[in-house]
Amino acid sequence: MVYNDRIYVYATNDGSVANKYETGNDYAKIVSLNLMSSDDLVNWMDHGSIPVAGKGNTASWATNSWAPYAVHKKINGKEKFFLYFANSGNGVGVVSSDSPTGPFTDPIGKPLIDKNTPTCDKVTWIFDPAALVDNDENETGYLFFGGGIPGNSVNDTLEAENAPSPKTHRVVKLGADMVSLDGEPKPIEAPWSFEDSGINKIGSTYYYSYCTNFFNGTLGNGRIAYMTSQNPLGPYEYQDVVFNNPEDFFGTGGNNHHTIINFKDKYYIFYHAEWLNKQIFNEQRGYRTTHVNELPFADGKFGKAKGDLTGVQQVKDVDGSKLQYAANNAWNSGINISGQGEVTQVQYDKGSWTGVSNVFLGDAKSITLKASSAKGATIRISVDNENGPVLGYVEIPESKELKEVSADLTNTSGVKDLFFVASANATIESWQLIGGTPAPVESGSLRSMEYSSLVALVLLVLSMVIVF
User: Fold this and answer.
1) The pTM is what?
2) 328: Cβ–Cβ under 8 A, 6 or more apart, which residues?
């Protein structure tokens, strides 16, 4: 979701399972969603995990929270945020908030859609929602969902017969409150469909995207295809495949979920893969991490995106003269995140670190941290990498309460990667460069995020493994 020039990524928390079980991902145990955001596409703020499904969580009626999709809409003059999620394959729920980062509440206390919803009794899997708030006069909302192939098992002859046209995807108009239905769901006849709805409106055209099934159809297995229509309720006409299965790029196959967004006049496709999972465990265990690449778009048509380990370019520099949160970083090792919401804290152990890409240093004279340490700690401030040239050292006195602490810096010119390395256990909430000049408006060095840098980030990744 894009809101106020910032991208918010809501994703299934595979990591909650990885931290408890060492064998493989057990999707039945996933009850929370991870949230990250960025305004430059390379540094990402970790907002923590949103407790959605199960006893004591926001939607206590739900068993699971998978494959979320978020939108925002102004209702009665106030911006509201709606997070739709799959209750396993049994229904779609919704939680809402006054902020993109929560806290979220359950506005209806039950599924928004389930098997009892008209036209949905023959939908194999009621899951994988996608939502759109139209730019018409009423800001009408629409919800897309569904998937699966009618039959009894993967090898069932009936499934094979139905694979070319499963007819299990649906679209429905939402009520003005975004948490009710205004009409009956209508079928989307998506060829070789399987799961994973996506929706975009470009000009007057609606672009519906989905993942193809694995019956060796004419569109390929587990690929992202799209269709178009002049009406959000369809009918939709098939166009093309825009993204192959991750197997073709990383050698790690599996299901293929995506979201397409427009950000600063470019289109990007977010998707998941098990590449990092395999680097850590030397095999695929079902733990998926989010990737992003550019998606070409010209003359009203999407081109074909390619998955890689380079990622996307940083669209602007970080202004060090403004307050920055420690949980907003591009690289890290050995840290944990505490809290959930707009502001979270980074917990460092001895030797752990975070790195921020492309910081405009502005000839700053000093740096101020909001930090604490139970036994006291020193934070080394360096550039280029965690072992790079040192700009200064910040001493955090012994205290369990977050306090502002400052230290002088030297050689703070230009745009550089800025690293924070802890000598002992410490918590940092924010940092700010003092006594320099602010970054030029919308400055940017077009830095690409190298995924190879992430291999060392095992501790964070296992707490942040995510999927749409």
Assistant:
1) 0.94
2) 38, 43, 44, 45, 46, 356
Q: How far apart are CA 84 and CA 98, in angstroms?
A: 15
C-beta of residue 180 within 8 angstroms of C-beta of residue 194:
no
Dist. CA 35–CA 20, nearest whole Å: 20
Split at pLDDT 50, 70, 90, the class of 457 is: very low
Q: 258: closest CA among 243, 247, 241, 276?
A: 243
Closest CA to 319 of 425, 407, 437: 437
pLDDT of residue 19 exceeding 80? no
What DSSP element (H or E) covers 276? Answer: helix 275-281
Mean pLDDT of the chain: 93
Helices (H), 116-184: 157-162
The pLDDT tens digits of the residues spanning 283-320 come to 999 999 999 999 999 999 999 999 999 999 999 999 99
* Percentage above 90 pLDDT, the chain: 87
| Helix, strand, coil content of the chain in percent (nearest 5) | 5, 45, 50
Its sign, for the CA torsion 183, 188, 194, 198, is: negative
Q: In angstroms, rounded to a whole number, what is the distance separating the alpha carbons of residues 110 and 107? A: 9
Closest listed residue to residue 301, CA positions, set 226, 210, 212: 226
Handedness of CA 187, 193, 195, 200 (dihedral sign): negative
Q: Which residues lie closer than 8 Å to 137 by C-beta, 6 or more apart?
A: none
Mean pLDDT of 271-279: 92
